[in-house]
Amino acid sequence: MCGIAGVIGPGGSARPLIEAIVHRGPNGVFVEERPDRSLAHARLSIIDLEGGWQPLHAAGSTVIGNGEIYNYVELAADFGLNERLATGSDFEPLLHLYAQEGPAAFDRLRGMYAFCLIGADGRVWLVRDPFGIKPLYLLEHDGCVTFASEPRAFLAAGLIGADISEDRARELLAFNYTLGEETIFTGLRRLAPGEVVEVVDGAIVPHGRRIAVPARTSRGGGETRLVNRLDAVLEDSVRVHQRSDVPYGLFLSGGIDSATVATLMSRLNERPVTAFTCGFEAPGARDERAQAERVARALDLDWREIQFGEEDFWRVLPQVAWAMDDPTADYATLPTYKLAEAAKGTLTVVLTGEGGDELFGGYGRYRRALRPAWLGGRLAEPRSADAEVLARWRAAAMPPAGLTRLQQAQWADIATWLPNDLLTKLDRCLMAHGLEGRTPFLDPEVAAFAFALPDRFKVRRRYGKWLLRKWLERTCPAAAPWAPKQGFTVPVNAWIAPRAADLAGRIAKIEAVRRVRTPEAVAAAFANESSDRWALLFYAVWSLIHLEGAAPAEALAAMTD
Q: Is the pTM of the predicted complex or chain greater than 0.90?
């Protein structure tokens, strides 16, 4: 896990870009300047602590990458590369494979990654993993293509101004994230999940996308056989996701997904696995600590309990707004940030449960989508009063033909909120503390197995994730796999309420807010305990930091003093 930046073309330097994202690579920065390019890498050392420094050169090619290629061991063995490897880096086998196969080598990768590869053939490639676990942002300017792991790098280097797209801002307030390849910053775009592009004469040339999940349904089979197959697929994924030369552990909630990861980590490790859980100190808050503790005791985990209260809310809010330079107004960023803050110094790698709901059919909206209208069924899509914004979501979420109704809903989430909300949240909140977040559900082998399952093994009666529950019933009964799902909420409204009237007045005066909400709409949101309260507060603090140049403490003071 690292930060990368580069300028492909003459005359530019990646140094000011990388200096803005050194929090992603606390172990050191290296900049390589050549007449036709500048490459920079801020390293968080995970694999081959001594020899894995980048840019990495082998077989006449060069690579800088962010993330991990988990199957580097198997690739080296399968292609007879071990005698040619000069390092133990997970990225070096890719360079040798590229020498043999060219860009076809990219399809062999199993991992989370965003990288720039410059081949011995002179071709320059930018590539992102199929789920979009790791980020990469691009800008074409002055005959060059510039890339970096975070938008703040372009702002710091003076390559873009603090100009925002009102369309993206409205998406943020409607969905808590923005859609598609265009970012909230005018002119700056994301490399899409799975996208491969080539840089030719200072321009970006598309070369297609690697799709994260198979557009098909399997015949399934007997339940026992599928549970056994699921066990093998998940164990293999967790095993490769544990590959690390530094301490690793997990974030444990009271839910099924993190309990699954914990169960397999406990099986695969001789020593107790370190797990962190966050609970909320607020009246009526849904607190999963008791259930997480039961799982931790059953699996003999080294369990650490973290509390999150009103004081944490106001302290962490501006720090999260700073970290989320590509904004995600998801209140789950708050406990994720504090968990990372607590884990720093104990762990460097953290496994999490992101992706379990999307792949195995866990969300209640999936079950509603399968019901007829007269039983309360409705489409599994976000609700928005803004018809134009909702139309853009529908276009971004459009699935291919041939999927079941449940798969269509899963596909929509995998295309929209998974990369642009959940995975952005995980990347920024952990990287702000120099931690690497890994997602064993979002693995090609797991995805190929889970997404193609017949609907009856995902949703049955009032249960989602049916097959995963059956597996947990057998492997970790303490996880209470058939207990009613609590849902994940953070009591933000309870913490905002005492200051609501004052906040409404202050937020309504901020320029970025005034461009997308009238003062009357802001006042109404805060007067009616609307869920828009949190999104407006986050957006206001975010805009003060990223558009007006305020430090996090100054942004908070503007809201609360």
A: yes
